[in-house]
Amino acid sequence: MEMEDQMESQKRRGASKDDLISEQTGSLGCVGWIIVILSGIFTVCLFPITIWFSLKIVQEYERAVIFRLGRITDRKAKGPGIFFILPCTDSFVKVDLRTVSFDIPPQEILTKDSVTVCVDGVVYFRVSDPIASVANVSNADFSTRLLAQTTLRNVLGTKNLAELLSDREGIAHSMQTSLDEATDNWGIKVERVEIKDVKLPHQLQRAMAAEAEAAREARAKVIAAEGEMNASRALKEASLVIAESPSALQLRYLQTLNTIAAEKNSTIIFPLPMDVLSHFMRK
Q: Is the pTM higher than 0.70?
């Protein structure tokens, strides 16, 4: 259902845009055709001179929207390559079809959880319909830049700080969808939106750092306590094994003496047999 609604809305936008263009490409009227015919005769009579004013060239990445007596001559822009215009009645506007990128200036935004942050981004867009970009808006590039700033503030105002820091891709996709729908009647196609940086106040940064440090210390204490518990269980099991075999205690005693002798070579140790100690312990 959502896909069908989107397709219907796109059809309605396309129909309204076609209607607007058809109104702009209406008939010139009787007087207009007379002027056009006179201009054509004038161009033919002075052909060696007027050819330099009639012949125009646009690049591969450009299109030309021709106005004849203030009206758009065709629903399709001219170019690339060579095209002709009538010197006295026709004028044209070049439209660049290449992808344009611009930085959204840093915006002071109050998030949903009442935190003030400074966010900036970048937008990539191009002209998809040259005629609409000329006829429906005075300056498509400048209008898209202003709309991107407003959209950034509106979208981020509905997000809390955690979502803003963790879900940048979702926010960028939401902004792209909103911008693309708003600029469709202008003949603009928004290709990509990215959130560049999120700057937090210094006090909030210190508070978040203290919170993270406290969380790390708490986890370290829990891990140390678990290690002590596991070590005590292992020592208990070792003591039970040694209690079952008295010779194991003697071997452990000799191993300890060997370790002490390896660490401190200048120390002389005289081992005392455990049997002697056990004799005194009975008494």
A: no
**pLDDT tens sequence for the chain (283 residues):** 444 454 555 555 555 555 545 445 556 677 777 777 777 787 777 777 777 778 888 999 999 999 888 888 877 888 888 888 888 888 899 999 999 999 998 888 888 888 888 888 999 999 999 999 998 988 889 999 999 999 998 888 888 888 888 888 888 898 999 999 999 999 999 999 998 888 887 777 677 778 788 888 889 889 989 988 998 888 888 778 777 776 776 777 777 777 766 665 665 555 566 565 666 655 5
Q: What DSSP element (H or E) covers 198? A: strand 188-199
Rounded Cα distance, 227 and 229, in Å = 5
Task: Tell me how far apart the alpha carbons of residues 280 and 230 are, in angstroms, rounded to a whole number.
Answer: 34
Q: How many CA atoms lie within 13 Å of 115's alpha carbon, on the beta-carbon side?
A: 23
Instruction: Give the type of residue at 199.
Output: K
Residue at token pair 């498509």:
140
Neighbour tally for 122: CB within 10 Å: 15
